[in-house]
Amino acid sequence: ENILSTLYKDRDWVVKFHDEVIRQGAKVRFYAYARADDILIHKEDIVLLKEAGLDCIFVGIESFVERQLKLYEKRTKPEINVETLRLIKQMGLKINMGFILFDPYLTVEEFRQNMKYLLKTRFYELCFFGQSPVSLLDPLYPMPNTRFCQTLVDAGIYDDSIFHKYKFFGFFQFRNQIFPKRFAVFKIFCRRIRKREFAHFV
Question: What pTM was computed for the model?
């Protein structure tokens, strides 16, 4: 859940929580979820939560490409994601970042743009222990009854009759003969990024 969403109903809960933790002298560490735009809106509350023990925050950045953000219905902008990462780094917090690098319509230029911003923001220096800076291991799961899922079903590239059943490769091999070569390049690039950035954790 978004730890900051309740602030729209109760503006004081973070202050009360912070003050009680400090009053009791409790030595706690905790992990929280939040939206990128909410972090920018509630900067002061994040500072209080950090003082109370927040040391890592999960943020669904997902992409630095506007088309992808619209496809995922994130209701945010690439520049907001960049600023959020900058702020998290400035505050000295760790991040577990949700990032959907690959979607069925990804172009080489969009891939380059995402890589550019991943390196530019140096987010890998903030990664929570165990997170791969870039990974293609987990597939993108279109949740049933969402607009994104219906978009893929209408395009004939996703079978929603069985949850998590994909037709992505068949789609691209049929409609875009260059796709398998692109995907091979993507995998090589990601392997190099992982090898280079993981040096920061060794």
Answer: 0.76
